Amino acid sequence: MWSQRHLTALLRRRRLLGGLLLMASLSSAAPGPAGPAPARQVSVARIDGVINPVAAQYFSESLQKARENGSAFLVVMLDTPGGLDTSMRVIVKEMLNSPLPVVVYVHPSGARAASAGVMITLAAHVAAMSPGTNIGAAHPVALGGGQMTKEMSEKVENDAAAYVKSIAEKRGRNVQWAERAVRKSISATEAEALRQKIVDIVAPDIRSLLEQMDGRVVETVSGKVTLQTRGARVVELEMDLRHRILNVIGDPNVAYILMLLGVYGLIFELSNPGAILPGVLGAISLILAFFAFQTLPINYAGLLLILLAIGLFIAEVKVHSLGLLTAGGIVSMILGSLMLFDSSAPYLRVSWAVIIPVTAVTAAFFLLAFSLVIKARLRRPTTGTEGLIGEVGVARTPLTPEGRVFLHGELWTAVSDVPVEAGEPVKVVGVEGLKVRVTRSG
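User: That's the sequence. What structure does it adopt?
Assistant: Structure tokens below.
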């Protein structure tokens, strides 16, 4: 049996142990000193130029990188005259289904969001513009071959209007203005766009934009997100070398020049087998041109006219047409260049500043080749027995009437109608087998 004293001591030890355990649990649950909060950051991508498949791919990769590097959202600095409908829809679709907020910022001053750029700006979770920018003129243009009929034009316009209205409604922006931008090609300055609720913010630079967005709540596919942007670190997502090269190749003027360089390179290689370099460069240029044609509204009638022009230039060298084939080639080259890309949008057509010099250089080259061929055909033969006629030599023996003369480093048997003394210069007037007929020279 335990004594009263033993029981009291045991109870004391248990109370002491319980107190120690309670203090330990409280100390472990108490918050320690707060560590530094993770630095907020935002990613910035720049789309400057035509909206094409390269721009769409660059946007997709930038959005993925922004998610991977832990950015709060992606800012797209936009300056575009418009572009391809298919590429624009790829970008808009990714915006509308992105769990990461996307901010479209028309920047810098002087930039614009026209045509396809209107749809992209309206689809953003936050739309912003810099002072001195504009947005609008989103009427669809004919792309991809042939002029649209009235019925087809109405269908395309109605489709574009319905599309932009659905985007504006989803983002809570001015639906009436968006529809008129498509049907009437209206535009708005940054101040008008802000006043008419087309965009959300007007900011002169990225820092001002981040400050104005701080605390704004946006709706994404993952739910509502509160933007904490004040003092955020900006991470630039620049186009890599591959995207920059493909973006340059996608320019209609560059694609046009690459095609001609490719054709000329193959012509030179076939004309001079074994040259190698013209053939290699020509093949590379043609492949790059064909890549560009996949991203542009190519018109095959224009392409055939250009090939016909080159064929006429080549035929001029082979056939004496007194310049008619060259004239036809120049006309065919100009018409083909104008028709090569079938679009009313100037940024999807070959510039006159490129067409005229290229046509002039091409015509001048083949005219030069033609003149050289004519001169070669009219030139007196310089080889064989016919090439001796008119040549001047020296009599080695007296010609009375037959003797020896020195011509082209060789001794020839010569006959002369007049006596010629040894050492006198003679001129060949005819060739008779292995004999030459000469007369005194001078």
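Confidence is low (pLDDT under 50) at residues 24-39, 142-146.
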